[in-house]
Structures are given as structure tokens and as C-alpha cells.
Amino acid sequence: MNVTIKQLSAFVAVAQCQSFAEACERIHLSQPALSIAIKNLEEALGGPLFIRSTRAVLLTPEGERLLPMAKRLLADWGQALGDISDLFSLSKGRLALAAMPSFAEAKLPSVFAAFRQLYPNINITLHDVLNESVIELVRAGRVELGVCFRPAVTEDLQFTALYNDAMVALLPERHALAKANAITWEDFKDYPFLALAPPSSVRSHMKSALAEHNIDLKVDFEVNQLATIKQMVAAGVGVSAVPQMCVSGLQAPGLVARPLSNPIIGRSIGLVARRRYALSSSAKAMQSLIEEQCKAGENGTAL
């Protein structure tokens, strides 16, 4: 059975107007085209839907049963098309994305504020989770976009770099190194060092990068949260190194951050999405705003 929207529209118009001529004007069809649409619909369904006379066009019992169903189908079809049109025009919809907490805190408030001004009826769900969880959420299709460090395996992912995030020294304000013009990783060997505990991706990347330069840095304290490192460093327990992206969220009295070199250890931060899956219009708009925000701040510093 092959029934079309055009045929149902023709049927409803004739039923409501009780006239082929008036129905033609309502739905902008010629009378031959309208007659063919009704004829094809009747053939598809197996019987007549109208009783035609010189005075009026009336519905058969079967036509009476079909009319409310046809109206509902047309209304649902119109609603469906309208909903899709709204998604394309960003008039309404939903968007789910994931980001590392440090990026979410430092960058996304201004991005979300701008997005809300442009598209007030788009509802956003943000998963501010660890780097590994961002990648898992994207791979599982639970979010369209993620912000994370460049994944090690990208066969199924599309990664768009935003900027390179270098690690910086985190020091007590009155620490001797805070007055130095340049700080190297070797300088840390004379002081208690705090680091994130495994399996932190930051810790893993720092360890491997230092090993490449034959630097064996003794870790005296391991913790699970950057906020804990902040409080311990501010209290004078020791020194640490953190991604520069995290510094804005770690500012506290008695705490300073300084550039760190020899080697400069950095990681590419970017947007990740599933390869071979198209982004929705809302996800594309969010991606554009995030890229603009990062480009605008690329020459700035959080120190």
C-alpha cells in the first residue's frame, strides 16, 4: 500500500470543503490533479471514500472513519517537519557535551553565556568529567562533542586541536623559586614535590616526558585532586607542576604560578567527536563558539 501525504491532504480538503472546486483552491492543485490524487488513494485503500452528487460531495462510512486519522497523520507530519526545521534553525533542541573540569571552569562559562544569548531555547547538558571519561562518553555516543587532551587512539575519533597547554610551576608565594626568572624541572629536586596520583593522565604524561629527557623527579606527595594540591602548596607543604589551563581555578592567597622549562611539557587540547558521524546544528554552533573563545585567549596567560 502506497499512500502519500499529497493524497491525504487532498482527501481532507475535499472532505472539509465538500467540493472539489473549493478543495482545489485551498490546497492549490488543479482539478485533474486533485481527482487523480483521490482516485489513487481510493485504489490504494480498496474502495470509495466519497459519494459524489450534483449538489455535494459526501463521505462514505469508510471515509468518515478515515477523516480523523488523516487529520492526525497530517498534523503529526507537520509537527515533525517543524521540529526538524527548528533543529536546523537552532530555535529549539538539546545538546550534550563533555569537558575536563579545568577546561569547563576556565573556558565554558563565557562560551555558554554567548551560546545562550544566541540560542536561548537550546538546552545544554555538560558532563564535566576526567579526560578519559570525556573520550568514553564521545565514543559511546552519549555526547556529540568533548574537550580533552589529544587521544592516543583516534581511528574512530575526529580531533580538532584548540591550543597547546604547557605545564607551569605551582609555588608558595614566599618560596625561593617564586623569585627566579626561569624555573626548570631540575630545580624541583631540592624541594618536596606534590603530584596527582596514577592513573591521572597528567601524571602519566609528565612522567613519560621527563623520562625522555632523563629526568628522575622524586614525588613526595600523591593526591587525587588538583584542589588538594592547591591547598597543600599554598600551605608550604611543597611545590608542584600543573597544566596552565588549571591555574585560573587554583588561584588562592599565598599561591603563585611560574613558567616551567627544560623541558617544556605540554599537551594538545582540542575538540573530539565521533568520526563518520555528522554533528547536529547545535553542536556545530557550540564548536564554533569554543574555537572562537580559545583563539581569542591564545595570546593571554593565566599566570
UniProtKB/TrEMBL annotation:
<dbReference type="InterPro" id="IPR036388">
    <property type="entry name" value="WH-like_DNA-bd_sf"/>
</dbReference>
<dbReference type="Pfam" id="PF03466">
    <property type="entry name" value="LysR_substrate"/>
</dbReference>
<keyword id="KW-0238">DNA-binding</keyword>
<keyword id="KW-0804">Transcription</keyword>
<dbReference type="InterPro" id="IPR000847">
    <property type="entry name" value="LysR_HTH_N"/>
</dbReference>
<keyword id="KW-0805">Transcription regulation</keyword>
<feature type="domain" description="HTH lysR-type">
    <location>
        <begin position="3"/>
        <end position="60"/>
    </location>
</feature>
<dbReference type="InterPro" id="IPR005119">
    <property type="entry name" value="LysR_subst-bd"/>
</dbReference>
<comment type="similarity">
    <text>Belongs to the LysR transcriptional regulatory family.</text>
</comment>
<dbReference type="GO" id="GO:0003677">
    <property type="term" value="F:DNA binding"/>
</dbReference>
<dbReference type="GO" id="GO:0003700">
    <property type="term" value="F:DNA-binding transcription factor activity"/>
</dbReference>
<dbReference type="InterPro" id="IPR050950">
    <property type="entry name" value="HTH-type_LysR_regulators"/>
</dbReference>
<dbReference type="InterPro" id="IPR036390">
    <property type="entry name" value="WH_DNA-bd_sf"/>
</dbReference>
<dbReference type="GO" id="GO:0005829">
    <property type="term" value="C:cytosol"/>
</dbReference>
<dbReference type="Pfam" id="PF00126">
    <property type="entry name" value="HTH_1"/>
</dbReference>
<protein>
    <submittedName>
        <fullName>LysR family transcriptional regulator</fullName>
    </submittedName>
</protein>
